[in-house]
Amino acid sequence: MSDGGDALELIAASLKMSKSTSKASDAKVLATEPLMIKDARWTRLVLYALGGPLLWTDETYILNLLTGPHTETRSESSAYGNMPREQYATRPEDSPIDGVGIVAILQRSSGPELLLQKQFRPPVDKTVIEIPAGLVDPGESAADSAVRELREETGYHGVVSEVSPIMFNGTPFWKRVLDRIHQTKRCLLDPGFCNTNLNMVHVTIDMSLPENQNLKPELEENEFIEVFSLPLRDLYAGCKRFEEEGYAIDARVGTLAEGIELAKRWKL
């Protein structure tokens, strides 16, 4: 078995050939191989010792899924146990967060619209409906990171109006595992398995500005992103429609849609 080098070379060659395109539909999984620990740039697994009493939960069920044969039987397990936990490995030492999610609002005469993206995500093997997002650089604030990532991924220039409290969220890897247990789960926030976190940053985009007319995204070779927008009032219905069409819904988009729907329903 190779150390992953052959697969990485194949992927790099394909990306160079398709660099001129950036459609989510252009992205696909070319090869999969075991990833050596030394090559794991984004995450690492850490084993935590847990004190009991510990009941049989989805977590222990997942542990069995990952380590060998398992049974559907729910019963009490030992008083002490070890659990794998995924840790993000890219958080700057001077930052309390890994990255930012960007709630970018386009100011249009017809009403506010939310900026969204379509991006293929290999762990779930689907194109995902997302908001712009990215990792913070060393020495960078959440607000500065959001403005930079927005410009790089979409070409839009915006102004920060709000930064949320720190939020903890999961990863597509754990979503795939949990979906094997609960097929009804369509979006996931999961601090039970991963310590990755972010600030949600609210950004307003003035569509009358010249710099927001002829957009020039600065995508990396491995980014296949389609940018579009939806009226905020239609976000909840839009999420349902996208799911019916086979897309996956990122938890941040789904949570925003739920919040808007609740506000309308309860006239908040």
Instruction: List the secondary-structure elements in sequence, H or E.
Output: HEHEEEEEHEHEEHEH
- Share of residues in strands: 25-35%
* Helix/strand structural class: alpha+beta
Shape by Cα distribution: globular
List low-pLDDT spans: 52-84, 171-189
Radius of gyration: 20 Å
Count of DSSP E strands?
10
Helical region count? 6
**Overall pLDDT metric:** 76
Helix content: 25-40%
Largest sheet: 8 strands, mixed
Measure the end-to-end span. Answer: 58 Å
Would you spell out the secondary-structure blueprint of this structure?
Blueprint: H1 5-17, E1 43-50, H2 58-67, E2 81-88, E3 99-108, E4 111-121, E5 126-130, E6 133-135, H3 142-154, E7 159-168, H4 172-179, E8 197-206, E9 225-231, H5 235-244, E10 248-249, H6 251-265
Helix pairs in contact: 5-6
Structure description:
The protein has 268 residues and is an alpha+beta fold. It is 26% helix and 28% strand. The chain has six helices and ten strands, in the order αβαβββββαβαββαβα. The chain has helices at residues 5-17, 58-67, 142-154, 172-179, 235-244, 251-265, and strands at residues 43-50, 81-88, 99-108, 111-121, 126-130, 133-135, 159-168, 197-206, 225-231, 248-249. The strands form two sheets. Strands 3, 4, 5, 6, 7, 8, 9 and 10 form an eight-stranded mixed sheet that branches. Strands 1-2 form a two-stranded antiparallel sheet. β3 and β4 (111-121) form a beta hairpin. The longest helix is centred in the C-terminal third of the chain and has 15 residues, at 251-265. It starts with a helix and ends with a helix.
